[in-house]
Structure to design on (136 residues):
């Protein structure tokens, strides 16, 4: 890299990929283990980071919007697992082994809202970042 030159597209893309892979690791190793029993404090932190990333994407602040990539990575695998659980009937409607408690529906809704906000922030981050980076 030449002295005085700004970060190139490789370093911008590398940073974005690093955040996504780190989030995927956290989601796969930690969040999936608890599935819908994720602690409320963790869910609040995830939603706040997703909102921060979306805010950063709307304001074209890449240092904030990059957190959206982390949240998309962190929620992708647990959301896949939880979608299978949330599609089960409620326990009152079908008292059997294959049912889900009513309490988990709200937790799943919070996950989906956080994922949608993070996906929107990720899209804004990628669109604005690709426009501002010089072509090689």
């Amino acid at each position: 890299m030449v002295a005085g030159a700004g970060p190139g597209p490789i370093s911008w893309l590398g940073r974005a990929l690093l955040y996504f892979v780190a989030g995927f690791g956290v989601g796969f190793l930690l969040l999936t283990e608890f599935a819908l029993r994720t602690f409320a404090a963790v869910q609040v932190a995830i939603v706040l980071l997703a909102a921060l990333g979306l805010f950063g994407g709307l304001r074209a602040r890449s240092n904030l919007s990059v957190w959206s990539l982390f949240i998309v990575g962190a929620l992708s695998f647990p959301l896949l697992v939880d979608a299978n659980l949330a599609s089960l009937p409620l326990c009152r409607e079908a008292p059997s082994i294959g049912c889900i408690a009513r309490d988990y529906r709200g937790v799943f809704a919070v996950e989906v809202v956080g994922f949608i906000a993070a996906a929107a922030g990720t899209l804004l981050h990628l669109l604005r970042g690709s426009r501002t980076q010089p072509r090689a």
Notes: The chain has four helices and no strands. The longest helix spans residues 103-132. Helices lie at 9-34, 40-58, 62-86, 103-132.
